């Protein structure tokens, strides 16, 4: 399930699992020994991003424009919370990182 070292980065992506290695390799979410509930919520969070992006013609800037800062902040808050739960479930020897959706000012 890990790639180079016990690192997991949580980042929403279209047509990919929301878990990554620090080298950029996409990891398989379902391979991690996470609770069913948390796995499901991570998928839901990821699908939300995919739907937003699809509605915005796959343009990140347009997505931010359409949704507004608050929706993005909510989304990032949710992602961070999920990342913290991943850390809790995987244990102390796994480094969990979180990569928020970026907003251009
Ligand atoms: Zn790697």
Concise summary:
With 105 residues, the chain is mainly alpha-helical. It has 2 helices and 3 strands.
Please describe the topology of this protein:
Layout: E1 7-10, E2 19-20, H1 36-55, H2 60-90, E3 95-98
Parallel strand pairs: 1-3
Antiparallel strand pairs: 1-2
This protein binds zinc ion.
Residues 3-4, 21, 23, 25 line the site of zinc ion.
- Global mean pLDDT: 95
Radius of gyration: 14 Å
Helix % is 40-55%
Run of helices and strands? EEHHE
- Specify the number of helices: 2
Walk me through what this model shows.
The chain has one domain (7-98). The protein is mostly helical. The longest helix has 31 residues, at 60-90. 49% of the residues lie in helices and 10% in strands. The radius of gyration is 14 Å and the shape is elongated. A hairpin with an 8-residue loop joins β1 and β2 (19-20). It has 2 helices and 3 strands. α1 packs antiparallel against α2 (60-90). It binds zinc ion. Zinc ion binds next to loops.
